[in-house]
Recover the amino acids of this structure.
């Protein structure tokens, strides 16, 4: 009996030791990246009937896998609700969380997360029935609003109604699915979430044309990937994968011309694609890491248009998400 | 003789490490120490990991401003000024409300169905059996979703509300009742009601004692009615009817004013009551069948009618068998109320381990508090039911 006890105690200490592992090594040994994704939001993370995942966030995960394994399919997606996502990342259930998650100071600090960048600049909006004849969110005094739990949306909603001295009746649901269904059944006058989410959810309602998205954007919602505190190398990799996609778009490198671009004499392109310098190796990856990403997944613009832009049913305008030199605010530090 | 025994004892006394009493004590001590060490190790490990990941820990969040809205609050709560601690109490009260109402309703329905299943009326007995078999074999979560959708889909939209008599409205956003406004002087009515209740209770005891002593019966029902209803009503009239009603009215979006019963609460209450009542019905049936047939026959031979036999002879004896499993059903109902999270009812789990956990990120603290709360509620329920059980248990004389 004593021997068992000693073994158990040793086991407990072994567990304590293994908590601070190197994520890149773990992922490589496993041969698979585990990515926390949405699972119910078209355009960001949604598996189709064949179980193939699509979405902007999903493609960011694929890009990370492409950079590490030279295979964009070595990703396992774990669908997470807004409520459970941080616990899943903190506890190590997923390697990276790319689930239309808003970057806020408290999440970056007290939740023990590091946001690596912004893959979509969003803002919160409202959807209402056309028959209500509401033209502005400021007319929603006294309305009931369906909202998903555990989101910045839930907090912004209360703030917005308070700031404008309006009465709010919020009805909170654990998942976006339940909230949307209740809104569709008439439980609420309005449904609120990020504007991109509204565009996606509207298409799933019984009669999409009976609903309208109000013009007001009531908050800043910079959505981006997040990793755990305590592994700087992994933080750098996830951060620079997204930067690489944005830089590739800026330099005109896309999935179709990437092989030609390898012969480019432009020093920026050469550094990005690894024909000059060893910037990929400095990250713990290979020299051709960006080539892999762009060839297998695409640059930021391609991924955007394919999932949420003109190439998708959502048809969202790029707006703020245009590159900095095209009138938007997507801007990546240079690879050098 | 005694000398002999002592000597034999001294010779035969085993070494202290072979003494079974000392051995068992030592084993227990070692086991306790190991468990304590493992618990300490787990806690230390968790704290260490949290610190390494720079995740906030401790209970400082309790006094931080909450900033989110809750749809049903039994105590004053506002997103702007209230704290996470306040949100905890709001959620806890919502849990207690649905559990309390559910226990009362499920007990009433369960007793009816349990007795109906033993009825000689074939149709009634088969209906009760069908109810029990269908309901207890379908997962509760599905039933909750069914009731929630039944409530939302079958009731009209808010703009086509059904106007009920007395100024109430019913629609798919809930039931809206006139809210009472207690004016100055109403407190005397409450005092009168308290006095009336106490008087009725005292009269009942006196009447029962007298009946046991002399066999004379007193008009208990009438006297109770006069004390409990008549006395407060008279005081209410004397004080000039110090009560007004705040009637619900149609607003731009919703019914405003009045007292609001959320559809989420109704659906959860329906689901929990109907589900648990099926189990309680079986407990009641088992209890009644456990009373020896001779008891009923003896009662009939004394000339008691079936209703009186059930009430005076069978049920009191059945209670001994019923109460312990009934307690488990009450505990199940309370714990099952946490499924509220699926249909948007703001109970403790939804508010606290849902929103508060997510906004603060302090999973360890929040989950620990929630587990402690459910443990406390369950232990208190057990305690109360055990006290009641001791009262109804068979007393050997």
């Amino acid at each position: 009996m004593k021997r068992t006890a000693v073994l158990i105690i040793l086991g407990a200490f072994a567990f304590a030791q293994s908590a601070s592992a190197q994520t890149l090594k773990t992922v490589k040994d496993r041969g698979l990246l585990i990515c926390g994704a949405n699972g119910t939001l078209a355009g960001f993370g949604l598996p189709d009937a064949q179980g193939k995942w699509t979405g902007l966030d999903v493609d960011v995960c694929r890009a990370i896998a492409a950079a590490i394994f030279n295979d964009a399919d070595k990703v396992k997606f774990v669908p997470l609700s807004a409520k459970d996502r941080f616990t899943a990342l903190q506890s190590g259930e997923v390697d990276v969380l790319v689930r239309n998650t808003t970057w806020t100071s408290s999440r970056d600090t007290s939740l023990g997360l590091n946001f690596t960048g912004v893959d979509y600049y969003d803002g919160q909006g409202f959807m209402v029935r056309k028959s209500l004849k509401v033209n502005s969110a400021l007319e929603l005094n006294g309305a009931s609003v369906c909202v998903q739990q555990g989101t910045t949306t839930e907090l912004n909603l209360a703030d917005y109604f308070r700031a404008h001295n309006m009465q709010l009746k919020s009805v909170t649901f654990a998942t976006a699915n339940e909230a949307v269904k209740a809104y569709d059944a008439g439980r609420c006058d309005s449904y609120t979430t990020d504007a991109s989410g509204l565009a996606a959810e509207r298409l799933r309602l019984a009669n999409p044309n009976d609903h309208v998205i109000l013009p007001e954007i009531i908050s800043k919602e910079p959505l981006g990937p997040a990793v755990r505190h305590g592994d700087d190398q992994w933080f750098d990799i996830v951060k620079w994968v997204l930067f690489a996609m944005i830089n590739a778009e800026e330099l005109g490198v896309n999935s179709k011309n990437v092989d030609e671009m390898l012969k480019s004499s432009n020093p920026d392109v050469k550094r990005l694609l690894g024909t000059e310098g060893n910037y990929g190796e400095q990250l713990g990856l290979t020299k051709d890491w960006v080539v892999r990403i762009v060839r297998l997944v695409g640059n930021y613009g391609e991924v955007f248009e394919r999932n949420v832009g003109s190439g998708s049913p959502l048809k969202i305008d790029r707006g703020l998400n245009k590159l900095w030199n095209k009138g938007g605010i997507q801007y990546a530090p240079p690879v050098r | 003789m005694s000398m002999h025994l002592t000597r034999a004892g001294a010779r035969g006394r085993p070494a202290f490490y072979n003494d079974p009493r000392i051995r068992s004590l030592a084993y227990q001590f070692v086991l306790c120490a190991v468990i304590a060490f493992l618990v300490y190790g787990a806690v230390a490990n968790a704290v260490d990991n949290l610190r390494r990941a720079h995740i906030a820990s401790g209970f400082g969040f309790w006094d931080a401003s909450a900033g989110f809205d809750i749809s049903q609050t039994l105590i004053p709560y506002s997103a702007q000024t209230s704290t996470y601690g306040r949100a905890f109490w709001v959620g806890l009260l919502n849990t207690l409300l649905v559990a309390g109402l559910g226990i009362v309703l499920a007990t009433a329905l369960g007793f009816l169905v349990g007795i109906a299943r033993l009825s000689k009326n074939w149709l009634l007995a088969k209906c009760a059996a069908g109810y029990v078999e269908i309901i207890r074999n379908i997962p509760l979560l599905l039933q909750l979703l069914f009731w929630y959708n039944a409530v939302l889909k079958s009731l009209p939209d808010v703009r086509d509300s059904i106007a009920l008599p007395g100024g109430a409205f019913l629609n798919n956003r809930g039931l809206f009742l006139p809210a009472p406004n207690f004016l100055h002087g109403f407190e005397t009515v409450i005092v009168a009601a308290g006095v009336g209740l106490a008087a009725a209770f005292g009269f009942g005891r006196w009447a029962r004692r007298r009946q046991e002593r002399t066999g004379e019966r007193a008009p208990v029902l009438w006297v109770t009615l006069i004390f409990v209803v008549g006395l407060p009503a008279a005081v209410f009239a004397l004080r000039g009817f110090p009560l007004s009603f705040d009637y619900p009215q149609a607003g731009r979006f919703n019914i405003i004013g009045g007292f609001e019963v959320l559809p989420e609460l109704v659906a959860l209450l329906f689901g929990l009551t109907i589900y648990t009542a099926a189990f309680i019905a079986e407990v009641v049936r088992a209890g009644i069948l456990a009373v020896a047939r001779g008891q009923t026959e003896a009662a009939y031979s004394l000339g008691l009618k079936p209703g009186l036999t059930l009430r005076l002879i069978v049920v009191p004896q059945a209670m001994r068998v019923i109460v312990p499993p009934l307690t488990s059903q009450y505990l199940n109902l309370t714990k099952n109320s946490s499924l509220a999270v699926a249909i948007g009812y703001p109970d403790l789990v939804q508010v606290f381990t849902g929103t508060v956990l997510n906004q603060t990120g302090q999973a360890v603290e929040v989950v620990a508090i929630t587990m402690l709360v459910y443990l406390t509620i369950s232990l208190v329920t057990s305690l109360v039911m055990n006290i009641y059980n001791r009262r109804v248990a068979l007393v050997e004389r």
Chain B touches chain A through 53 residues (CB under 8 Å).
